[in-house]
Amino acid sequence: MKRFRLWVRELSLLQQILCIIFMFVAVFVGFLFFFITPAIDRFSETEIFEQLHASQSPIIDYINEHPSEEEVAYGLDDSIIQLMYDPKDDQIDILRNDVLSENILDQIKIEARNAKSGTQDYSLETEAKEQPGEKYLYSITLLKDGRELISVIADTYRVSIRKSLISGVVMMNILVVSVLLALLLFWVGTFIYPLQQIKNYIQKIKNDEPATLNVKRNDEIGEVAEALTEMEKALQKQNREKEEMIQNISHDLKTPIATIKSYSEAIKDGIYPYDTLEKSIDVIIEHATRLEKKVKSLIILNKMGYLLDKCEEGNHLNMNEVIAKVILSLKVVRPEIEIISYCEDNVLFHGEEEPWRIAVENLIDNALRYASTKVTVELKNNELRVINDGKRIEEDRIPTLFHPYEKGTDGQFGLGLSIVHRVCTTYGYHVEAENLREGACFRIWKEPVKKEWYHKA
């Protein structure tokens, strides 16, 4: 069975369809020989006996109406031999078509002697010395006067009916099967062609060649084609943003390095570029801090790419302590912005402290960057919100806000929110952004909760 499955997997779609067609034809032929042919045999034999019965009816009616006449009227069917058996003298009189041998008549006479009331049907096959293999069908009807009317017909007539029926059934089935197979091949062709288009499209994208995909369908294949084109557009957009981000990083790294180098060389030569030695060193420290922050963001993003949930099940991390540490370290970034905290006691999250601290730092740092007067941090069971009262987020940017390299108006690298998304998804949480009447809210949650509980000051 395993070998069969492996063999099927190696076949193309067209080859699989051809195998199905072959199996269908084989089953149809088997069904024809094992079920249809015997049924036709039974049907044709029944029809022959019905014909024999029908040929006897007018003769029986005539005998009943003219019991004294010796001459008996008989049917006009030349293929049927009509006999009359008289049990008084044990003789068979041939009424029509005298083509039966004495041996056949003797065998019919044996059955006639044992005939019962009504009509009985029999079949007779000749012996080898007579007419080898020839078969006869006959019906015996007991008359009111004690005689027996016997109608005989050669089996060749039944065989001809059988052949014509089988030919008709076979031709009809072949026609139906041919039409179905043609429709099946056409239907499969409508799959193969778009799939081939999709394959060529993917190959061109792989080879970084210009590619277009024109598959206009409303089924699953059309959905796959549409998803591929959307994916390709998203990849192109992400590649452009990544290239732009690399260029920006190169420029942003180059500027502080150049400043640090030039200021250091000037101070070494006894020159203070920014009035005094202290102010010049402050400039060096500022650019070194900027450089450190950018390098740290890149390292964290790379590290988060390999982040795995190795914690034991359940919530064990005290988020109150994490938020308190983050607020303590960030409140000096923009002292003019008030950071307000509304946190329930002993709120536990699932995960490790360091990734969650980085995620919370990025959210609050992002909020400080855009806030006008205050940043609000709200913590409840399995939910965290960071709200700023600054400008709202452009609606078209919300769906892609957590993508890597998606940089906002006043953003730096476009990495902070993607790190937040990575941490949340690793530990089984959701993250989203939404606009408020004034400002924006970033929400992390694990279980469905009401969306209007947070403080709106």
Largest sheet: 5 strands, antiparallel
Total strands: 12
Backbone shape: rod-shaped
Distance between the termini: 68 Å
Element order, helices and strands?
A: HHEEHEEEHHHEHEEHEEHEE
What topology does this entry show?
Blueprint: H1 2-9, H2 13-65, E1 80-86, E2 91-96, H3 102-113, E3 119-125, E4 135-142, E5 148-154, H4 155-206, H5 220-268, H6 277-304, E6 317-318, H7 319-330, E7 338-343, E8 348-349, H8 353-370, E9 374-380, E10 383-388, H9 416-426, E11 430-435, E12 440-445
Parallel strand pairs: 7-9
Antiparallel strand pairs: 1-2, 1-5, 3-4, 4-5, 6-8, 9-10, 10-12, 11-12
Helix pairs in contact: 2-4, 4-5, 5-6, 6-9, 7-8, 8-9
Describe the structure.
The protein is 53% helix and 15% strand. The chain is built from 9 helices and 12 strands. The strands form 3 sheets. Strands 2-1-5-4-3 form a 5-stranded antiparallel β-sheet, sandwiched between helices. Helix 2 packs antiparallel against helix 4, helix 6 (277-304) runs parallel beside helix 9 and helix 7 (319-330) packs across helix 8. It starts with a helix and ends in a 12-residue tail after the last strand. The model is unreliable at 453-457 (pLDDT under 50).
